[in-house]
Amino acid sequence: MNSLSHKLLLCLITSALLGCVSNQAEFEDAQSDEQLMQTAQPNPGEQETIEYGHFTEEQLYQTIISELGAQRGVLDQAGDRYFKLAMETKDPSIIQRAIQFASVNNDVQALTELGLLWVEIAPDTTAAHLMLSYQLLESGLFEQALGHMIQIIELGGQFDFTALSARTTQVDTATREALIASLRTLSLSHPSQRSLKLSLVRLLDQNQQTQQGLAVLQTLIKTEGDDPQLAVVNAQLLQKLDRGNEAIKSLKKSVRSNPDNSALRFSYARLLIQNDELAQARQQFETLIINNPTDYETLYSIALLNLEMEDFEAASSAFTRLISANQRVDESHFYLGYIAEQGSHLEQAISHYRNVRIGTSNFLAAQQQATRFAIELDQLESAHRWLSQLSQGQPRLEVLFTTIESSALIQAGHLVPAQQLLTQAIETHPLDTDLLFARVLLYDRIKDPVSAEADLRRIISLEPDDSRALNHLGYMLADQTTRFDEALELLELAIAISPDDPAIIDSLAWVQYKLGRYEQAAANLRRAFAVFPDPEVASHLGEVLWTLGKQEEASQIWNNALQDTPDSELLKNVMERFIP
């Protein structure tokens, strides 16, 4: 990793923004599961008073035993006893106590049955319908849930209907269309229920009817006026319809009308990022941080934006501030390492990368970079000692670090130390295919195909379905020998295991070319090049096309690939061979 790509950084920025849940929470469409649970299911510590007088002696005994069991932590048995008592007595207090235990035990079936019983004996109780609505939603019984949600409203209660649309992203089209029809009808009979209409909007959007959803939403906006939540949803739908400029304009207007609404400004900043308006997005985040200096998630977003805009000084300052506040420490060290790398301050880069702690998302990438730079600086012993200390007592991590270290040594031309490292590691872990494959790469570098083939066949004997080894051996035989039939057999095994791997498709096409199957080779190379347009695939595709008499197309592919990778010796060599 010599640099972080543009797309990677944008992904990281988006992830950071999505992580700022404190700012975004105001515009969540649906209540969280936790909120619904708290409302729908009583807290075990808030037991209602149970009137014991009308119970039989056996029922009273079971109640006391259940409570004693709960006090001892035997919750599943207590839950089973209370469930049976609820079904026998049909007592509302017992039912609610049974619900508490079923909830703690995560007994979904019991919760649903208890909810149905509660509604049956207390049909005018809002809490009963609320609890049952939640269980039916969780079970995917949306139409049944909708009936109880409406009952809550008709009993004078409140329900956020977007709890429905929040759970329908993966349902089939027929189910979603039935729900859309129901919500359209209910919207007419309950015109004051704003969340019902918002749920309809979301369902239409999920059903690829975003334009219709936007029409419903804009009708709601006309009724509700300048509402920040509706403004955000409106912008989201416009953005999805590729109307980014309109989305920005509408949300900007809402921000101006509600300048102190941080959640709205946050959504506006995120929309600007989606439209690649990074400088404007940074201004919005800077306003947010001025208003709330301890909002470290927003500060992290600013740091990433500065990094993407290559304002390394500002990014470094923000990341350093985060470390001082003990916030996003590992991510900040990782990006400070990247910044130091861009300035060729390799010692600083190593220091920051090594400060990324084990167990964090960037840990392995950081250790890979630190190792590579230490070896580039001829600090071979330091690099090895650091990785050994980190992996002590962790065999899998030790193997992984060995492959990282050997790769860095090979890349830097330290071939003898790399071979010594791998040979020693394989003596300790003789059945580890990752170590064997790492040594194959070394043998490739020192041009020892006999030893490479031996290790590859060892890997295949240990793991017959290792498509990586099958592909590597097949391609090696096709490219360096005349054992084309044997190569084809290996590559057909590899492609059967990993049919969509572009590297294997390229290798298969290459042996087909060697066997004179030019049309098959061209078709497979086009397929590989479409998803993996690297210089090697480009060189192969051009060569096959040239052989088929398509010299103009071949030249265009080579020239385009050379523009993207001007230092590719592979492309230069193939062009020299074919172009006079």
Mind explaining what this structure looks like?
There is one protein chain. By secondary structure, this protein is mostly helical. Among the domains are: 31-159, Serine Threonine Protein Phosphatase 5, Tetratricopeptide repeat; 164-277, Serine Threonine Protein Phosphatase 5, Tetratricopeptide repeat (Alpha Horseshoe), CATH 1.25.40; 512-578, Tetratricopeptide repeat domain (Serine Threonine Protein Phosphatase 5, Tetratricopeptide repeat, Alpha Horseshoe), CATH 1.25.40.10. It is 75% helix and 0% strand. It has helices spanning 6-18, 21-24, 33-40, 57-71, 75-89, 92-104, 108-121, 126-138, 142-154, 162-165, 173-189, 194-206, 210-224, 228-240, 244-257, 262-274, 278-291, 296-308, 312-324, 329-342, 346-354, 363-376, 380-391, 395-411, 415-428, 433-445, 449-462, 467-480, 484-497, 502-514, 518-531, 535-547, 551-564, 569-578. Helix 1 packs antiparallel against helix 18, helix 20 (329-342) runs antiparallel to helix 21 and helix 30 packs antiparallel against helix 31. Residues 1-7 and 20-48 have low confidence and may be disordered. Keywords: Repeat, Signal, TPR repeat. InterPro entries: TPR-like_helical_dom_sf, TPR_rpt, Ycf3/AcsC/BcsC/TPR_MFPF. It holds the Pfam family TPR_16. Residues 1-27 form the signal peptide. This is Tetratricopeptide repeat-like domain-containing protein.
Percentage of β-strand residues: under 5%
Number of H- or I-type helical stretches: 34
Give the CATH topology of one domain.
Serine Threonine Protein Phosphatase 5, Tetratricopeptide repeat
In CATH's first tier, which class of one domain applies? Mainly Alpha
Quaternary structure annotation: single chain
- Overall pLDDT confidence: 88
CATH architecture of one domain: Alpha Horseshoe
Radius of gyration: 32 Å
Helix content: over 70%
| Dominant shape | globular
Termini separation: 36 Å
Low-confidence stretches: 1-7, 20-48
CATH superfamily of one domain: Tetratricopeptide repeat domain
For the secondary structure, the number of strands is 0
The major beta sheet can be summarized as: none
Structural class of the helix and strand makeup? mainly alpha
